[in-house]
TrEMBL record:
GO terms for biological process: protein O-linked glycosylation. It is a multi-pass membrane protein. The keyword Cell inner membrane does not apply. It comes from Chloropsis hardwickii. Residues 1-229 form the ArnT-like N-terminal domain. Pfam families: PMT. PANTHER family: DOLICHYL-PHOSPHATE-MANNOSE--PROTEIN MANNOSYLTRANSFERASE, PROTEIN O-MANNOSYL-TRANSFERASE 2. This is Protein O-mannosyl-transferase 2. GO terms for cellular component: endomembrane system; membrane. Its main location: membrane. The keyword Hydrolase does not apply.
Length: 258
């Protein structure tokens, strides 16, 4: 059922047809982009679950069997993400391997990763944020090094990605936020650290974990509204002034009083 829902939205992006959905746009935009790059023309109706795709090229959006393309590829990335995260936290190779094997043979994870769903995309960014946070913590003895900046910035990018797919990504934002508060509190209590250096630590985290994710999150919506410039099923949720900007709408190019 969800595949018909999000597959249809991927088609909307390919056809540049405006629609409204409760979730942020990133996941659907990536699904549409994957379909577009793999040759899907956005003509499949996605009317009801179980419809055959026939001649439509859907492989780019949904990985089938061994075709790990996009959703399936992102789902498969969860295994090395989990392996590296546990290895970094525990320094135990058996623990990391056990975690990886648990995910490899998890029926739910395998099933979610083979359909056109937001879940594998969301989990990719969630686990990417956790891995980046853990890696950044491991660089705490080398602050402001290239690797420290890389992992801190990648944490911010992953946070924006998680929130941009579903609002449930807020939970990983809270996790990273609590970790950051703990780090800053620990630095504040370090009497050998000057207030100027503490200010630099604070500014770096504000830039990478607040400003960067907010900028990326806003940019997602900018792309969303720039791409969807044709009238569609989402028109009615917006003002007449907005509808007048959509090609094919009854109000297109009509002068609307303030």
């Amino acid at each position: 059922w969800d595949e018909t829902h999000f597959g249809k939205m991927g088609s909307y992006y390919i056809n540049r047809t405006f629609f409204f959905d409760v979730h942020p746009p990133l996941g659907k935009m990536l699904i549409g982009l994957a379909g577009y790059l793999s040759g899907y023309d956005g003509t499949f109706p996605f009317q009801k679950p179980g419809d055959r795709y026939e001649q439509h090229n859907y492989i780019g959006m949904r990985g089938v069997r061994l075709c790990r393309l996009f959703c399936a590829f992102l789902g498969s990335c969860l295994v090395p993400f989990a392996y590296l995260t546990v290895l970094e936290l525990s320094k135990s190779l058996p623990a990391a391997l056990l975690t990886a094997f648990i995910l490899i043979f998890d029926t739910g994870c395998i099933t979610l990763s083979q359909y056109i769903l937001l879940d594998p995309i969301l989990m990719f960014f969630l686990m990417g944020a956790v891995l980046s946070m853990v890696k950044c913590n491991s660089c705490a003895d080398r602050p402001f090094s290239a690797s420290w900046w890389f992992w801190l910035s990648l944490t911010g990018v992953s946070l924006a990605g998680a929130m941009g797919v579903k609002f449930v990504g807020l939970f990983v934002v809270l996790l990273v936020g609590l970790n950051t508060i703990y780090d800053l509190w620990d630095l504040l209590g370090n009497l050998s650290l000057s207030l100027v250096m503490f200010g630099k630590h604070l500014l770096a985290r504000v830039l990478c974990l607040i400003v960067l994710p907010l900028a990326l999150y806003t940019a997602m919506f900018a792309v969303h509204f720039a791409v969807l410039n044709r009238s569609g099923p989402g028109d009615g949720f917006f003002s007449s002034a907005f509808q007048s900007q959509l090609i094919g709408n009854n109000l297109h190019n009509v002068s609307v009083p303030e």
